[in-house]
Design the sequence.
């Protein structure tokens, strides 16, 4: 079992492009980041769960709080102009087209870029109250964030750009 988890970690680190010398600091991570791309490798192939041009932000506050919202830019409007009166089809499109979550974050290992997220609340309720692991690499104003256990049943890679 240890061999498998070590291999999985090495695979994630390779996917994130992290070398033994690369380090990510809390100071580098802190700030506002705009989503550039989000792709998920699943057993059925690579998908873009929020389309080819997703929109969103993630904020890592220096005090250990974070907030994240990602969505498709083409989520349909609710015809009734009242979110409480959306049709079942509209609600499905909204639920599949967006995810938001927030909580607390901590950089666990600067060398590997391992970050622990404690999810306080999420539009994907299976995450509520749980801890998640991500792997982050920051290079200037670019961040690569890898989620090895995406809710899309695969490994998601996010490319982000610092908001100035």
Sequence:
């Amino acid at each position: 079992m240890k061999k498998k988890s070590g291999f999985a970690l090495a695979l994630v680190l390779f996917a994130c492009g992290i070398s033994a010398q690369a380090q990510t600091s809390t100071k580098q991570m802190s700030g506002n980041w705009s989503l550039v791309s989000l792709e998920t490798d699943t057993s059925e192939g690579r998908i873009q769960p929020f389309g080819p041009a997703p929109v969103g932000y993630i904020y890592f506050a220096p005090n250990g709080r974070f907030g994240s919202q990602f969505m498709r830019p083409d989520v349909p409007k609710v015809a009734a102009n009242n979110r409480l009166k959306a049709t079942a089809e509209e609600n499905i499109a909204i639920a599949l087209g967006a995810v938001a979550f927030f909580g607390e974050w901590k950089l666990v290992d600067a060398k590997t870029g391992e970050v622990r997220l404690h999810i306080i609340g999420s539009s994907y309720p299976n995450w509520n109250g749980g801890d998640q692991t991500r792997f982050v690499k920051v290079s200037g104003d670019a961040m690569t964030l890898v989620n090895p256990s995406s809710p899309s049943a695969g490994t998601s890679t996010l490319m982000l750009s610092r908001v100035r």
